[in-house]
Write a structure and sequence with these properties.
- The complex is a heterotrimer.
- Chain A is α/β, with parallel strands linked by helices.
- Chain A has two domains: about 150 residues, Thiolase/Chalcone synthase (Peroxisomal Thiolase, Chain A, domain 1); about 140 residues, Thiolase/Chalcone synthase (Peroxisomal Thiolase, Chain A, domain 1, 3-Layer(aba) Sandwich), CATH 3.40.47.10.
- Helix content of chain A is about 35%, strand content about 25%.
- Chain B has two domains: about 45 residues, no CATH class; about 70 residues, OB fold (Dihydrolipoamide Acetyltransferase, E2P) (Beta Barrel), CATH 2.40.50.840.
- In chain B, strand 1 and strand 2 form a beta hairpin.
- Chain B starts with a helix and ends with a strand.
- Chain C contains 13 helices and eleven strands.
- Classes of the chains: A alpha/beta, B mainly beta, C alpha/beta.
- At the B-C interface, strand 4, strand 5 and strand 6 of B face helix 5, helix 6 and strand 5 of C.
């Protein structure tokens, strides 16, 4: 999580508005981008996993703010962590669920026996259109996960997953545009809610689990209101989602959103606790996962927790925010 | 920026990789072709990624390509393995930098070759996040 | 090896010459030197220049310089060692005469800094640093010196004591016809000036100027000004890799050799022109040359020890700060100024009875240094 913050209050000062879908959002430093965020997450994952990085057979970066339109962020990450050359990499795009898309693929690679270790990263430096409602929340951050065959060394195992996708144009960005456009209220019920509910109910039905079977739940967090509303709709409690709910303090890290929410949850979870995670990506779709923590979780979360990065902050004014986002022509 | 020049320095920069003389054990960063002992045989040597500030300055008149970032801190850092290197310090207010401050390596953008050229990355250091 | 003497010198005032080229300035200094020597029977040329490739897109200055002198055909060699180019070129010229290979060498340095934007000068200076791991950090020469300055302040001195290096330079430049800034500067002005690279203030840094200086070298006769010692040395380019960053080993090594050749010690030197591109560089140079112990040079300067009447007169025409610092030419300005002193032709800047003088310049952050010692001999 980058250290700079832009408060809703400061956005309101700029535009004479009074919104507050979050308290503040994270902003990259002058020298950060999706690649640098991905590398930092990846290195921490490798350190915590305690594995030889050359054994990682795949590095997939899910983002909608890749620095190059053509040149994978994944190759830079793979080179930086020492996973090259025996590695497959690619960048995934599915708006805010690109990171969990990468996870689905890694599960497939490892599950099929094709790779011993596979890494999925969700990271973004989300582009917020000035004076748009999403400007309050379009934030920067990411998280990385290394997948392997379940063993005593893994921190959590996956029981099941389900992806629910339709063609729904709620939010999009054309190739040469700087900022996305969206359908305002259309991004709610026909988009976010329909797909999260669809994926959730689909997975719960297939597995026979009920909300009370989970210790924690992580839903895509574009603002503070939506995940609370969808949790209630599905029968999950606020207590279940609170540990993973960081959006109020850091904003929506887009492809990082669910992976970051999961990381916040894993930072506090005990062993043998079941977690329900459902991402959402505009376009649209949701990836739903059921995972259960293991004993190894406690030993493998050394070093700074997400909360350390959230608490490490410095607020900037709007002009400095523009400078950090490269929006001042020099 | 020449692509080959950037590319051949990627691994040393991305992974803080120097070399160590097979004959006398002297360590170098960046890697040296010939050791002061005369040997030309080296092993890769991975530098420590944490250390402390020895001395620093604030660059206010940057060289070409670094204008976007000024003012920025540059420091001599002594790593925990005894190696010293020069690096930018980031995520810190220049007024808060102190000799002896604990720092850790991070992967950051260094410069860009305009809007259409390659993006150059490398190591910088920030105050340790516990 | 033959003894070598300075037969003539030519100095062009340091300023911005918008309407003149590097060849123009070089030729002016060279013609002055030849006139001063009373001969134009030059058999080889050395050209000191640091940034012609960058600032004028020009390499192969040796051939160009010979042409500018109206003597295409002469052996003519460009020498580059960053901001030590002048002193190193002088050293090469000395060897050419001492070895017997040449009999009348013209060595001239030139720089045309005003051809580029001042902001770009930092980029030019940073080219003397290792590019992939030093310059890549975005550090500048000012930044490297600043880190040394900070270490020095932590251990040895107050900011104003180091700042006096610049103030004294300005004091000595008053009335100097070839100085770029021939006026006094108070320590308050220096310390109040904005930071260039913390903790170095802007007014502690040498400026941007154009200039050229040249000397004629011949085998020594019965009297005159001989080159008593001349040496070049290098040091590890990376400040981070040096055992003691405050010790300019390149300077110490070159000085040791030059003193040895001349059969003198630091205490025998009557005046010194040292490399104060930043105040701290001047201070540390004085220490590495042996004029003060480590940590004591700033106090020596602040205590008037380097004034014209002091224990060791330093930068008697203003030094790099006040006389000016046209990069590749600087080292030759220094040698020419020493020669003027030894001739007794320094006017208001004269160090009475000056007999042995030292010129020291450096390139990069003291990764190369040249020390040249001149001595009046004979009648």
């Amino acid at each position: 999580m980058p250290m700079y913050r832009l408060s809703a209050e400061e956005v309101n000062r700029m535009w004479g508005t009074s919104g507050a879908p979050v308290e503040e959002k994270s902003v990259v430093a002058l020298d950060e981008d999706t690649v640098t965020i991905s590398v930092e997450c990846a290195k921490q994952a490798v350190r915590r996993a305690g594995i030889d990085p050359s054994l990682i057979g795949a590095v997939y970066v899910g983002t909608e703010s890749k620095p190059y339109a053509v040149k994978p962020s994944g190759t830079i990450v793979a080179e930086a962590i020492g996973a090259t050359p025996s590695v497959s990499t690619a960048d995934y795009e599915f708006a805010c669920k690109a990171g969990t898309e990468a996870m689905q693929t890694c599960i497939g690679l490892v599950g099929s026996g094709m790779q011993k270790y596979a890494m999925a990263i969700g990271a973004d430096t989300a582009q917020g259109r000035p004076a748009d409602a999403l400007e309050y929340t379009a934030a920067c951050g990411g998280a990385a996960y290394i997948f392997a065959e379940r063993s005593a060394d893994t921190v959590a195992y996956l029981e099941a997953s389900y992806s629910y996708v339709t063609d729904t144009p709620d939010f999009w960005r054309r190739a040469k545009e700087m900022y996305p456009r969206h359908g305002s209220r259309f991004t709610g019920e026909p988009a976010y809610f329909k797909h999260i509910v669809g994926a959730s109910r689909g997975l719960l039905q297939e597995t026979g689990y009920k909300p009370e079977d989970f210790k924690y739940a992580v839903f895509h967090q574009p603002n503070t209101k939506f995940p609370i509303t969808v949790a209630r709709t599905l029968g999950f409690s606020v207590d279940q989602i609170n540990p993973g709910l960081v959006v109020g303090k850091v904003g929506n890290t887009y492809a990082g959103s669910s992976p970051v929410g999961l990381a916040a949850t894993l930072d506090v979870a005990g062993p043998d606790e079941r977690i329900f995670m459902v991402s959402y990506g505009s376009g649209s779709g949701s990836d739903a996962f059921i995972l259960t923590t293991q004993d190894a979780l406690k030993e493998k979360r050394g070093g700074p927790k997400l909360s350390s990065f959230i608490e490490r902050k410095r607020n900037v004014d709007y002009a400095t925010y523009l400078r950090h986002r490269g929006q001042i022509i020099q | 920026m020449s692509v080959p020049r950037y590319w051949r320095n990627q691994v040393p920069r991305y992974r803080l990789m120097g070399d160590k003389c097979k004959a006398c054990g002297a360590r170098y960063f960046p890697a040296q072709p010939v050791c002061t002992c005369g040997s030309t045989e080296f092993d890769d040597y991975k530098l420590s990624e944490t250390g402390e500030v020895v001395t620093w300055t604030v660059i206010r008149s940057p060289p070409a390509g670094y204008e976007r970032y000024a003012p920025y801190v540059v420091a001599i850092i002594e790593l925990d393995d005894g190696m010293r290197l020069l690096s930018q310090m980031v995520d810190v207010d220049p007024a808060d930098v102190k000799a002896g401050q604990r720092v850790e390596a991070v992967f950051r953008k260094v410069r860009e070759d305009g809007a259409s050229g390659i993006i150059q990355y490398g190591y910088k250091f920030r105050p340790v996040v516990e | 090896m033959r003894r070598v003497a300075v037969a003539g010198l030519g100095i062009v005032p340091v300023k911005e010459y918008w309407d003149r080229s590097a060849q123009d300035l070089f030729a002016e200094a060279a013609v002055k030197a030849m006139k001063d020597a009373g001969t134009d029977n030059v058999d080889s040329v050395y050209v000191a220049n640091m940034s012609g490739a960058l600032m004028q897109d020009q390499v192969n200055l040796g051939a160009l310089a010979a042409g500018a002198l109206g003597r295409p055909g002469l052996p003519s060699i460009r020498v580059e060692a960053g901001t030590a180019s002048g002193g190193v070129a002088f050293h090469e010229a000395v060897k050419a005469v001492a070895s017997g290979y040449s009999n009348c060498v013209l060595v001239g340095g030139v720089e045309k800094m005003s051809d580029v934007l001042p902001e770009y000068v930092n980029t030019a200076l940073a080219m003397s640093e290792e590019q992939e791991y030093t310059a890549y950090t975005g550090v500048t020469k000012a930044g490297l010196s600043a880190m040394l300055h900070r270490l020095y302040l932590d251990l040895y001195a107050e900011p104003a004591e180091v700042g006096m290096m610049a103030v004294k330079g300005h004091d000595h430049a008053v009335g100097c016809k070839h100085a770029q800034y021939p006026f006094r500067m108070s320590i308050e002005r220096a310390m109040d000036s904005p930071m260039e690279a913390d903790p170095i203030h802007m007014m502690e840094c040498s400026g941007v100027g154009d200039g050229a200086a040249a000397l004629m070298l011949v085998p020594a006769g019965e009297s005159g000004i001989e080159v008593a010692g001349s040496a070049v040395a290098t040091d590890c380019c990376s400040l981070a890799a040096r055992k003691d960053p405050l010790a300019f080993e390149a300077v110490r090594r070159a000085a040791e050799r030059a003193y040895g050749m001349a059969g003198v010690k630091a205490g025998d030197i009557d005046l010194a022109e040292v490399h104060d591109d930043y105040t701290i560089d001047g201070v540390l140079s004085l220490e590495s040359l042996g004029f003060a112990k480590q940590g004591e040079a700033a106090k020596l300067v602040a205590g008037n020890g380097t004034d014209k009447e002091g224990k060791i007169p330093v930068n008697t025409f203003g030094g790099l700060k006040a006389r000016g610092h046209p990069l590749g030419a600087t080292g030759l300005y220094q040698v020419a100024e020493v020669a003027l002193q030894l001739r007794g032709a320094a006017g208001d800047h004269q160090v009475p009875g000056a007999r042995v003088g030292l010129a020291q310049c450096m390139g990069g952050v003291a990764s190369v240094a040249a020390v040249n010692i001149l001595r009046r001999f004979g009648a």
